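explain this:

___
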Amino acid sequence: MTRTRAYHDGVLHKEDFPVAEVSDFLAEPDTAVWVDLCAPSEADLTELAGELGLHRLAVEDAGQERQRPKLDRYHGHAFLTAYAVRFDAETGDVATFELAAFLTRRALVTVRKNDGFDIEAVVRRWDENPELAKSGVPFLAHGLLDFVVDGHYDAVQSLDEQVEALEDLVFDDRPDQSHLQRRSFRLRKSLTALRKVVLPMREVVSSLMRPDLRLADELTRPYFEDVHDHARQAAEQTEALRELVTTIRETQLNLQGNRLNLIMKKVTGWAAVIAVPTAVTGFYGQNVPYPGNGETSGFWASTVAVLVLSVGLYALFKKKDWL
């Protein structure tokens, strides 16, 4: 499944033409070409490499999965790997979709590993900013990176809301401990997955803005700087959220320990109160004569002793906040 576009002097000239015609369009002046491949075969990548003169190592990386986000430079072109992310607020899971891209001076080639990467959203961004199209490949690269980084930023914001909700659950009067543990573990797992694809994007965008690559001209440089700023914010907030989730987990364990100590203190206090009548009745249950043995006065003396000592201990424990 292949999509193609050709821009001539900042205007969309033709689209959905065969890959074999790419070199013909590149022979025309003031023309920029975009080619998109979804789950391409090795033959498709080989054909494209022949059309654009792509380096063999870059073509191999484009065919492999789970590459780290990076920007590699070769003679005549650069190779980019990035990930789009999607956060599911219901489950707390983060899904990542890998994208490889070849950037030459007049062509952008995107290689998607599957159709999970929403390339149509990227196309809409290009169509919504026609005033930048005269820049050619910088215009195309900016729209692609802007979509990727905005997705990172939105995912981080959604995770931030989930972490705030987790904070409220931690300080609930009767929290569901098993639910809290599962939720905090899932958020930590999602943040770890997000961190792997978000943090390197700062360096990727920064490298693309280097003057020697000539990918950020005077027209698009402010837009690349805006993307870089969003990438930096997403990375910083991801790090902050990771520390916050760890703090929440530690707070949860501390609150559990405090609640357990409070329960043990109360149980111990009540055990002491209950021990008083047990001791008194045990004393009066001796099988030897004692003052009041077999008399009504003995019963009332033991009853009064039980009540006075029990109430006294309860008042003492209550005063010391042990009950």
Remarks:
- DSSP finds nine helices and seven strands in the chain.
- The first strand starts at residue 2 and ends at 8.
